[in-house]
Amino acid sequence: MYVCQRDIVTLLSSTLSLLDCDNCFNKATIALRTNYILTIMLTRPTSLVKEINGCTLCRDRFAATATRNRPRPVPWFQPGTRILIAGQAPGRRVHETGIPFNDRSGDRLRDWMGINSATFYDQGLVSILPTAFCWPGYDAKGSDLPPPPICWETWHDRALAEIGEVKLRLVVGGYAIKRHLGTSKPLTQVVAGWRDLAPATFPLPHPSWRNTAWLKRNPWFETDLLPDLRRAVARALA
To answer: Both 89 and 123 in a single domain?
Structure first.
């Protein structure tokens, strides 16, 4: 992802303000932000990433939503990565920070994978390719709108070609499963059949805390699938 120097300075300043706070949350925030800043400084954006960062195709569409948000693409990938996380679309917090999965969903996903933030945000190891690069905004009821198809149609063939072959692919959420796996089967049925796709691909529910009830109804996900997933992640990173 390409971030301007002003954004880096702002993030550094807000991070430094937390150093005097003896608080576990602040310490975790400092660690995440420090790793993010280092990633920005050490990762040279490709021409495609720069193109995506400048995309405004959905400007009018977003302006017409209840949130009237502006486009802010969040590409996070590079060639030669080992693990591809094929997701849905950024949420509001990701839109505000420019950091993918920088929320409780990301905490849960990292737990599912058995890795820490430093590994997760190392693009040489993990790339994140959402179905749409921008937060689509909220509808009138306050729910996230679906990823606009135009984003997939415009960018994803090129993005996948640039990423190249990966050792492991995680397809996260219903929209991503339909796009990447080409199936309209119910999500539970697809995830329950993970052994048919493993060890190269794992279909997963979205790690949103709104899906906690789904996890309780499907205990096999934690007892059977997650151990297989963590072993596959460890192999891909070895």
So the answer is: yes
